[in-house]
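Ticket reopened. Same input as before:
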Amino acid sequence: KAVQLKGELAAYQGVWVFIEQREGIVAPVSLELLGAGRQLADKLGVELCGVLLGDQVSGLVNMLYEYGADKVYLAEHPLLHFYRTETYMKIFVELVQQYKPEIILMGATTTGRDLAGAVATDLATGLTADCTGLDIDLEQRLLLATRPAFGGNIMATILCKKHRPQMATVRPKVMKMAAPVPGRRGELIISEVNLQEEKLLTKVLEIVKEQGEQVNLQEAEIIVAGGRGLGDRENFRKLCFGLAEAIGGKVGASRAAVEAGWIEQKYQVGQTGVTVAPKIYFALGISGAIQHLVGIRGSDIIIAINSDPEAPIFKECTYGIVGDVFTIVPLLIEQLKEKGGILCA
Amino acid sequence: MHIIVCVKQVPDTTEVKIDPVTNTLDRSSAPAIINPYDSHAVEEAVRIKEEHGGKVTVISMGPPNAVDVIKRCITLGADDGYLLSDRAFAGSDTLATSYILSQGIAYISRQEPVDLIICGKQAIDGDTAQVGPGIARRLGIPQLTYVNHIAGLDLANKEIKVHRKLDEAYEVVVAKLPCLLTVEKEINELRYSTLPNMLRAVRYQPKVLTAADLQADISMMGLKGSPTSVSKIFAPSQRSGGEILKGQDQQLVSQLVEKLVQCI
Ligand SMILES: Cc1cc2nc3c(=O)[nH]c(=O)nc-3n(C[C@H](O)[C@H](O)[C@H](O)COP(=O)(O)OP(=O)(O)OC[C@H]3O[C@@H](n4cnc5c(N)ncnc54)[C@H](O)[C@@H]3O)c2cc1C
Ligand SMILES: Cc1cc2nc3c(=O)[nH]c(=O)nc-3n(C[C@H](O)[C@H](O)[C@H](O)COP(=O)(O)OP(=O)(O)OC[C@H]3O[C@@H](n4cnc5c(N)ncnc54)[C@H](O)[C@@H]3O)c2cc1C
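Engineering reply: fixed in the latest deploy. New output:
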């Protein structure tokens, strides 16, 4: 059981998760954090709370209980329709000052990182960025926040010993969502919101959806990624899209393939692209540079096909084939098509 | 229009290794470079200056040899540079770093008021993306993070309009000046340095400010001013090494398909 702290820090209790939503849709990472937060709260023997801000979002509250929250702090106002640092930050900081949580988790999304950085500064407390591991040191009653840095070359465990709350942003797709418990309920705390548009310094005019095909690699179950080894644009498209189609997956790419102009940047996997966590990740003609590997480590199974037996990707893969993509991949497509029925089941 | 750009000297992270025995960071082999996002921040500031007139000042906190990144910014078209350098700054986390930088910015703006501050989206070593928001809060100005396009600058009304990158979308937002932006690389293409700028950079000596010059609260800097501490550094866990399938091409593929069928 966790020790009780003395002095000022003892006043801070409980684990909070910022529930990120856009247009009434909750970001998956927030539910993942309820799963991770539940475990931290149980270890500490404290409550897990969700903090939900927005315009007409009270319909989401029951879902948060079902995913593990004991309590939900809700702030609703028309001016909270779009996320704005200044409004969200003000309300969040006031809630923290009033209710004093010991741990605050937010998704390491553009919104979560923006809000967390502002809130931590106002509270003058520590914030660990982009974590991939969370645990509790029961003897010191501390959050152990582990994160990659230096482009994924190192991992570091960061502590915030003398300040509360302890804050962390957490990378999407790393923590596991808990299975929802239908009908589970908790306590709702509604907070008053006073905001006036005239006093605000920023205004969101609109949100514009990107044109063209939606690529959501973060959610994909199977990804077929291609690299420089595919030689040219035509082969890249033939082999990657061909295999993806045969196995029911999405296409991804290394930076070398993106820079060669074979595919758009939004398909890039890795440090400066997206981080993915599919069931199966194919790396076709990808060497396995560290900046690529940091983006794929969450995959359950990594399959590497590369002609160079020394390629670093073979150290990271689950199954490797040393061979030429131009012969292996067409054979694979062919065999998969024969087995098609089984695989898609 | 006076623009301040925050630039950080970083090790080229592709060259950073971890010593497997001592589990410490070996930066010795890594050359120091300007944080790649920050070159785009400088480029954007210079473009704004070219269109609207004004001045671009860069500021960096770092060891004495970080003058090199400031000189580099002069070649990119910056007018002036300040290096904040003092032993008291060492070991700063993002809270302390943003405090020190905001004090430096306050110092500069006492001489010449600042309209816009631009940071990179994140630094490639610390990778936190927290220093920009930290500076904005300390100065009490709006922050617009992940900006990938400046859609308009209205100097008469002191307003800026930008696109902020979101997942699969972007947001069009306006803010009152002064404000702080953090920028994505796709905001612009870097240009080649001009010869006059390169010559100027050779002779240029940035102004160096110490903790005493800033007349700021020393307990908010360095290790003392940092709520976070790194307790452990280790190499990322590697998979145990893959199972390399053996055989002729046809057999290889059949084995793989078997494995796939099992795991789906
Ligand atoms: C700051 C920074 C950020 C970066 N971010 C990213 C990132 O987000 N994502 C990313 O991917 N990279 C990133 N990189 C680039 C990274 O370092 C590598 O350069 C890149 O991943 C290499 O791509 P690749 O594996 O496709 O190409 P290469 O490294 O050139 O590898 C090609 C591979 O194909 C194999 N091959 C060749 N022909 C065949 C054939 N006929 N059959 C089978 N195999 C064949 C070769 O053996 C080789 O292993 C970043 C770099 C830096 C410095
Ligand atoms: C392994 C490791 C992990 C760390 N993890 C954390 C952590 O989780 N939380 C934490 O608070 N600190 C952490 N730190 C400390 C942090 O890296 C330093 O405070 C660092 O100086 C600033 O953070 P950053 O590199 O992440 O910058 P970012 O916030 O990513 O930088 C964003 C932008 O801010 C500007 N900027 C940043 N630093 C400077 C500078 N020195 N001079 C001028 N402009 C600058 C640049 O425009 C830059 O593009 C960590 C340090 C290490 C070694």
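Residues 58 and 81 of chain B are 5 Å apart (CA to CA). The longest helix of chain B spans residues 94-111. Please confirm and we'll close it.
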